[in-house]
């Protein structure tokens, strides 16, 4: 039978409230983390879309110019003799309308410039072997040996000034013949790429993977911890783009995150408060029920168990003993000449004596012992897992403890005690009758003794009056 805890105040409502708070706070943090991750993904997607827009614009410009001179290969492939006037006329038609960006178009046989348009401004470049020009030798040889297109710059030009060079190999009969190159004005190309960057809302720095230390376009300040690196291939080369958004979606999302956090914390605060009230009310109700339950099984005067509860516990312990063979003993005692105390000093003093005796006996008990007021000045003590000898020792301790109390006005009060161990198969009535008989013998033995009954009902007063 469960014994109600009347002397321990429960505070589980505080623990439960903290638990609810912790769970809700964890959920809020998970939701905010998930939301922020989604914002970051959207930001990355936005960055990718911006980059794709910029990349397409750059590729479109470079590839468009490369395609413009690719047709010159057909001219070389078709004819064996090349007239200067025809070549320059061809080059003039190509550059027409693109003068803003194109400084010149050059035709290189093997690695030496043989035609360069506009002719007058670029006479000094005719006949120059580019494989021997610093800054251009590597690029021209790369096209020659790889047959791949090439973009380089900004480079110092033979005829003076700086420009970006787009080179396309020219083949004849399936073999390398030379290179067609377009020189883009540096300032105009930077302006154009700046416009692409502005349209894409990006800050950009462009490198070739083959030349990671050489900046093709952009600001080296972009290459910092906040950069995002994108790789792309065009003009048959790997390019590296370091990009950084001019406007970032993450700061834009920050107010939403803060708003969600504040709303979440407010909701958590409210729910935590409601949880506290709920758990406290539940616990108060539980404590009230425990008090009511306790009052139904306890003696109001001595705060020991009452006879009804004691009878129920005897039945439980007898069942346990019969099932498992575990020993259990009963101690039954009353106070000597207690009626004289009530008659002489009044019931108020008698009640005080009963409370004092109950209190001192409780201090001698184990947690498993069941101590009850049987009625009047009679008390019973049930001791599970205790054989007769152990119960006799406990009874003597109780006798001495009771005798040691000097009650104000009343003085000393003694007790007579009967003890008996349960005999397996015995009824509770028979067991109690044996112990009651032992108590009778204790009272007869000068009213201050401990007497025990064995399984056959034989009585032996093991402790004499001191």
Whole-number mean pLDDT: 85
Number of strand segments = 17
The helix tally amounts to 11
Biggest sheet: strand arrangement: 11-12-10-15-16-17
Form type? rod-shaped
**CATH topological fold name of the largest domain:** Alpha-Beta Plaits
Q: Biggest sheet: strands, sense, closure? A: 6 strands, mixed
Distance between the termini: 38 Å
Number of domains: 4
CATH superfamily of the largest domain: Reverse transcriptase/Diguanylate cyclase domain
Order of helices and strands: HHHEEHEEEHEEEEHHEHHEEHEEEHEE
Q: What kind of oligomer do you see?
A: single chain
Which structural class fits the helix and strand makeup?
Answer: alpha+beta
Work out the strand percent: 15-25%
Uncertain regions spanning at least 5 consecutive residues: 4-8
What characteristics describe this protein?
single chain; 466 residues; alpha+beta; Beta-Lactamase; six-stranded mixed beta sheet; 11 helices; 49% helix
Description:
With 466 residues, the protein is of the alpha+beta class. It folds into 4 domains: 12-62 and 249-295, no CATH class; 71-188, Beta-Lactamase (2-Layer Sandwich); 201-245, no CATH class; 300-463, Reverse transcriptase/Diguanylate cyclase domain (Alpha-Beta Plaits), CATH 3.30.70.270. It has 11 helices and 17 strands. It has helices at residues 12-70, 72-78, 84-95, 137-146, 186-200, 249-297, 307-324, 338-345, 347-362, 388-403, 428-444, and strands at residues 102-109, 112-117, 150-156, 162-172, 175-185, 202-208, 211-218, 228-234, 237-245, 328-335, 370-375, 378-384, 406-407, 411-412, 415-421, 450-453, 459-463. The strands form 4 sheets. A 6-stranded mixed beta sheet has the order 11-12-10-15-16-17. Strands 2-1-5-4-3 form a 5-stranded antiparallel beta sheet, sandwiched between helices. The longest helix has 59 residues, at 12-70. Residues 4-8 have low confidence and may be disordered.
